[in-house]
Design a protein that fits this description.
Rossmann fold; 9-stranded antiparallel sheet
């Protein structure tokens, strides 16, 4: 589909589905560009509501509320990928939706995502669709063990997956994971995980931020370090694969692409773990060291504006603040740190409360 490339003017209203920290940061970035934002979220205590006076508190399947929301804005985007397909279709019929409904449908379903990536010759882990326990047994025969059984939808931060090490693990894992169908992925013996945040606008301009090296604790991102400890050839390859993906999707906005770096005899190889059609946790470091951060880049793309310069001006480590970690602020910061707190009212175990960007070397 040909995208509308006419840029929206200053003062336009951007509709954002989702009122969490990503929606909040998108709204703040839009405000810096002279835009207004309207947040749609069912949770009346959403932290994004604190940064804009325009809000709708309603369910994502409330057709009347969605129609009124669409009519009140000039363009629509979202902070999370699990927007119901019917919601995306209703909104896209009324106003431009970036990223588009097709990209959303592919990225929110692991099986559709892997099928799409494989069709574009993007390397992914070997996989099999699993609808029944018999399918799982056959998939184990084909892929071997260990392997990872995952839900195709609604999984994040380690939720919705089980590692199978013995065949005896299969039945319990299959019974525990919902919703079905599932997907079994071959285990990847990777050295590290990296991610690339890439952006594309409707004119076809593509720009990527430097890869971040990611470390997880309890399946939740703990730190993203830039530069990643990878060879220059791996960095260029990751950016090239990310560009192939956004072009193939006819994508408008920022996309997060997570890679496994797999050791090889001659050089490491890359396998795409997953894609996220939104601004990404591993891109928060861009706030501190890039002229254009990932949030402004996404807003620029949605508006039809030229993309900003993603060049990095310092080395940096982003650390997530989870639960009570937020109590370390402000005593735990200094002149080389940039804290960003999300305005959430209650610190709970496993809840992302903010992040800290720490400069490690200035150019």
């Amino acid at each position: 589909m040909t995208q509308n490339t006419t840029p929206l003017p200053v003062g336009s209203m951007i509709g954002i589905l989702g009122g969490g920290q990503l929606g909040r940061m998108l709204s703040l970035a839009a405000s810096r560009l002279g835009m207004r934002t309207h947040i749609f979220c069912p949770d009346p205590d959403s932290p994004a509501f604190e940064v804009t006076p325009h809000k709708t508190v309603a369910a994502y399947d409330d057709k009347a509320a969605l129609a009124a929301f669409a009519d009140a804005v000039d363009v629509i985007t979202y902070e999370f990928e699990n927007v119901p397909a019917a919601t995306a279709a209703l909104l896209a019929a009324r106003k431009p939706l970036h990223p588009g409904a097709n990209a959303l449908a592919i990225a929110q379903d692991r099986l559709a995502e892997k099928t799409f990536l494989a069709s574009k010759n993007i390397p992914v882990a070997a996989y099999r669709a699993v609808a029944t326990l018999a399918d799982l047994e056959a998939a184990i025969d084909a892929l071997g063990l260990p392997a990872v059984l995952k839900t195709t939808r609604l999984g994040y931060d380690g939720k919705g997956q089980r590692v199978l090490r013995e065949r005896s693990d299969a039945a319990a894992a299959f019974a525990a994971l919902e919703p079905k169908p599932l997907v079994l992925e071959a285990f990847v013996p990777f050295d590290m995980e990296i991610s690339v945040v890439v952006a594309r606008n409707a004119s076809g301009e593509v720009k990527s931020f430097d890869p971040a090296e990611n470390v997880h604790t309890n399946h939740i991102l703990h730190t993203s370090t830039v530069p990643a400890n990878i060879a220059p050839g791996v960095e260029k390859h990751a950016a090239m694969l990310a560009k192939v993906i956004v072009v193939a999707l006819d994508y408008v906005g920022v996309l997060g692409v997570e890679f496994f770096v797999v050791p090889g005899t001659d050089r490491p190889s890359l396998i795409v773990n997953e894609i996220a059609p939104r601004v990404h946790n591993s891109g928060h470091w861009t706030e501190a060291v890039c002229l254009t951060d990932q949030f402004e880049q996404h807003i620029r793309a949605a508006l039809g504006w030229p993309l900003g310069d993603p060049a990095r001006m310092a080395d940096v480590v982003m650390e997530n603040l989870i639960g009570d970690d937020v109590a370390r602020v402000p005593a735990g910061i200094d002149g080389n740190t940039q804290p960003h707190l999300y305005g959430k009212s209650e610190a709970r175990p496993g809840r992302k409360m903010g992040h800290i960007n720490r400069i490690t070397r200035r150019f």
